Amino acid sequence: MERPTIAGRTLKFVVLTAITLAVLYPFGLALGTSLTGREESIANGGSYVLLPLHPTLEAYKVVLSGGAVTRAVLISISITVIGTAASLLCTVFLGYALSRRGMLFGKPILLMVLATFLFTPGMIPSYLMVKELGMIDTYQALIVPVLVNAFNVVVVRAFFQNLPEELFEAARMDGAGEWRMLWRIALPLSKAVIAVVGLFYAVSYWNTFFNAILYLNDQAKHPIQVVLRQYIFRGNAQAGADIAVISNLPAASVQMAVLIIALIPIVIVYPFLQKYFTKGVLTGAIKG
Amino acid sequence: MVATTAPPPLEVETEVRPQRGSLRERLRRDWTLLALCLPGVLYFAIFFYVPVLGNVIAFKDYAPFLGINESPWVGLDNFTMLLAEPEFWTAVGNTLQITALQLVLYFPAPIALALLLNSLVGHRIKRFIQSVVYLPHFLSWVVVVAMFQQVIGGAGTVTNFLNSHGITIGNLMSNPDTFKLLATAQVIWKDCGWGTIIFLAAITAIDMNQYEAAAIDGADWKRRLWHVTLPGIRPVVLMLLILRLGDILSVGFEQMVLQRDAVGAAASEVIDTYVYYHGVINGDWGASTAAGLMKGVIGAALIYAANKLAHKFGEQGIYR
């Protein structure tokens, strides 16, 4: 096949560079601004700074030394850890049972899971259910209503189905029941898919925003994404400005420090996630 | 599907869990598995199927202190009330406009990016760009909107840069006239990269011999793209288009809630936010449930119809 022309290659290079920069620039800008100290901010007219000359962690120290952001971070961490563990357990249990051929009621239960793809119950009935269960203003409201994701069940089930049946056969010969087979055979062979599904759950719990404003009236219970919104959008970022006044820091630095805190766990788990997700997404898409 | 005359696969004794035996025997054998299903089944029952039934309040004059059962039936009153409500039609109009913009501008974007990425020869560079463009998918909407704010908001760096060079774009983050384009741009920034995954996989699955045959026949890259690559990914494109059709009435809910203060309800109200503000906030339960129910039914009907249509054109669709 012929080689691409110089012009074509240049164009490609320019387009891809532009796309990459369009993604990375806002990250850099937020990080740079969050590390900007008072003098430098004044010199820049209080605006955002991509590359601070004298980076300082002041803004992080201030927002993480107690107060609304610190509390929200702790809440979000707890929700994420507990929620991910609970979701993973339920998803793996259901996915495993549905992967065993000929299980009693296997067909109807599978249909019950798949039917959820076609329709949504709607916000009001879901809200009333949560209310009925007395979960308004409780942390459970951020976990229980989103406990199991049907797509993740399908992904896990597909993975378990592809494990060689002989292994289970051999274990059965040795007298193992389904419970033991799940823990001793299925799970050890499925670390990749467990990792990716767990990370998907963790990301969605960490990013929880709407369920928090829907179900939690008590501001003291708000997770980090809701507090971030308060800092950046609500009432001209009053919260951020208040802290800035008290601590003598530029408001933009404080706001961007909260922004970075709200996204840093994602960036940390991202490399692990990325190693697996292509595979996870595709098994789900093909088998679904 | 032409060759359906192939012999059925041999029924060897690989079936380790035979479907015979009395119910009681099978129960005794499968009770562990059933117990494992229990949390998940309970979850779907309580948070999916019961709320689906809860949609009856669309036909009731729901009063919280009476509860769903005791509230009186009102027939289709909620629907007639809703349809006479100008604000509801604003929400429908905004939803359809944003969906149309997304279909035209956002839907093809991941296909184009996937083709571009696929044409890269260097593996490391390709991997690097993939890592970068997938990342925004995992950010929350609060973070994404904040990112846009610092770049093209009133005090944004790009806004300032353009201002200082004599180009005034104003504050794009609070301009109701351009909001729908902005919302589409945000979706593209967040999900275009992630959307390439499925197309890249489809492109990789195309038989390389087809390209070689086409090249031998003298087809240049444009013709190979048109006659080999695009037909090769057509089933995937159609499948995603069908799924998108089912979602035609759901556009970025959190995205709209977050930017409502800045651009106002007239520009950013969509069906989902209408349901939220009129139902949960203002307590107009019946009418907003009716809006949600109509949305759900239309979505399911669209998926069904689009899938039928795909079969008519001889495509796989999403289910048979």
Keywords:
heterodimer, A: 288 residues, mainly alpha, MetI-like fold, 69% helix, globular, B: 320 residues, disordered N terminus
Task: Give the topology.
The complex is a heterodimer of chains A (288) and B (320).
Chain A: H1 6-34, H2 38-43, H3 58-63, H4 68-99, H5 106-114, H6 123-132, H7 150-161, H8 165-173, H9 178-186, H10 191-206, H11 210-215, H12 224-232, H13 238-247, H14 251-287
Helix pairs in contact in A: 1-14, 4-7, 4-10, 4-12, 7-14, 10-14, 12-14, 13-14
Chain B: H1 23-54, H2 67-70, H3 77-83, H4 86-106, H5 108-118, H6 123-134, H7 141-152, H8 157-164, H9 179-204, H10 208-216, H11 221-246, H12 253-263, H13 265-268, H14 271-281, H15 285-312
Helix pairs in contact in B: 3-15, 4-9, 5-9, 6-9, 9-11, 10-11, 11-15, 14-15
InterPro entries (chain B): MetI-like, MetI-like_sf, UgpAE/MalFG_permease
Membrane topology (chain B): Multi-pass membrane protein
Family (chain B): Belongs to the binding-protein-dependent transport system permease family.
Oligomeric nature of the chains: heterodimer
Beta-strand content bin of chain A: under 5%
Total strand count of chain B, please? Answer: 0
Shape, per Cα inertia axes of chain A: globular
What is the end-to-end distance of chain B?
12 Å
Number of helical segments with 4 or more residues of chain A:
14
Query: Main sheet of chain A?
Result: none
Low-confidence stretches of chain B: 1-15
CATH superfamily of chain A: MetI-like
Identify the biggest protein-protein contact and residues per side. A-B, 95 and 92 residues
β-sheet strand percentage of chain B? under 5%
Structural class of chain A: mainly alpha
Give me the CATH fold name of chain B. MetI-like fold
